[in-house]
Amino acid sequence: MPAVTMKNVHDLPPDLQDTIAQYEAWIGDTVFARIIAHRPEAFRAFHALYLSLLAGVVESEIKELARLRLARLNGCHY
């Protein structure tokens, strides 16, 4: 049995239901969103950060360096 279950979308506040619907449309996967939704304030903060990254607040070169660093730290031959 998993340590943390996914929240039922219909049990969430309307703003988080809308956010999860956006994730479904964007990436087709809502598992992470439905788990972090146990802490609505954390989910809202993460979503704001995610939108700022998508909006170009962080340059693509910096994002690519972060991806490479994470791959190296995790032993991924990216």
Explain the layout of strands and helices.
Layout: H1 14-27, H2 31-36, H3 40-54, H4 60-73
Detailed description of the structure:
63% of the residues lie in helices and 0% in strands. The chain is built from four helices and no strands. By secondary structure, the chain is an all-alpha fold. It is globular and about 40 Å long. It has one domain (9-73). The longest helix is centred in the middle third of the chain and has 15 residues, at 40-54. The mean pLDDT is 90.
Which features does this protein show?
globular; 78 residues; mainly alpha; 4 helices
* Count of distinct structural domains: 1
With helices defined by DSSP (H or I, 4 residues minimum), what is the helix count? 4
Annotation, overall tally of beta strands: 0
Query: Could you say which overall geometry the principal axes of the C-alpha atoms support?
Result: globular
Detail the poorly predicted runs: none
Radius of gyration: 15 Å
Q: Give the percentage of residues in beta strands.
A: under 5%
Largest sheet: none
